[in-house]
Design goal:
single chain, 396 residues, alpha/beta, Aspartate Aminotransferase, domain 2, 2 domains, 3-stranded mixed beta sheet, 13 helices, 13 strands
Amino acid sequence: MGYFWESENESGLESKRVYLDSAATTQVRDEVILEMQKALADCYGNPSSSHSFGRAAKTAVETARKTIAKYLNAQPSEIIFTSGGTEADNMILRCAVRDLGVKTIITSKIEHHAVLHTAEDLVREYGISLEFVDLDASGNPNLDHLEALLQKDDSKKLVSLMHVNNEIGNLIDMGKVSEICTSNAALLHSDTVQSIGHYTWDLKQLPIDFLTAAAHKFHGPKGIGFAFIRKNSGLKPFISGGSQERGFRGGTESYHNIVGLEKAFIAAYENLEAERTYVKGLKRYFIEKIQEEIPGIKFNGLSGDLERSTFTLVNVCLPVDAHKALMLLFHLDIKGIACSKGSACQSGSDLGSHVLTEILSEEDLKKPSIRFSFSKYNTKDELDYVIGVLKEFIEV
């Protein structure tokens, strides 16, 4: 069962509902919900307690840790559960500056705000330097410039570049980035929130120091994620108060969320090839169909490139004037279509997308840009409906 259904509105007329905002959050798998219900009902001991109820919960938490480590080819001790990607990003950047003597953070201007705002805070709080790698017209980082920034001075440096951009879907070559960082003795962090569960990782082969993930991006629950922190990194506790998470993050573990994350993680990787093929087919169909039906449409960043962007999303700039654009999202919502003007983390803000501001022309910034993101629960019928609604709106 997906998100495409018909319901009656207040006037008694049937309306369709289509969810194309999986880059913001995904539908939770049925088997994940069942696993979490079981955990809440049957295994409610505190994982830190020594009695049988606590031991059962602790065993499940550690089993989940081992599962994640196995799929990523990491060590269980390198997986730290967090409340999600934002906390994990904050944890890594802050602790790297506090504990490892990082004096310079190098990132890009189109990173998630969990990285950008944290880096800006660290400039104010610790007086570190913040450098931005140049981007090309599509939003990809210039790796020659990255190397130049790394060789600018002798300060301890941390590079933070996301593997998959959450708004335009660009994929960067983490292998090349890691080689550059290693050859220049720099630490490397990647926000992989849009990547974990959709791409495979071998963390014994890839020389990356830190990465982050959130379960709700791969059909798991909200409020749970993890950080990969390479063994012997030197980072010290981020949240004090208890010995949980190897002493790194105090606080009672969210056991039901952790087992939900594990279930979603296993399902994501056991079904990876089949689901990736299916979702990539949806994206291909959407790209072809929308170009046929709406002349003048543009794809932002590399989102229209099936090989150089993630298979899960497209970001389109529509041929609509600024005045009419004001009504577009409202119109789509009335038609039961869920999508994003920019990142969902910016919803409620009057500010435009910081990502699109960096890569679009002044003319295109005046037009509406919409991110449509897909999942295994979507269908071609849904995409036909959405494109039809867009076409009708533009032509009226």
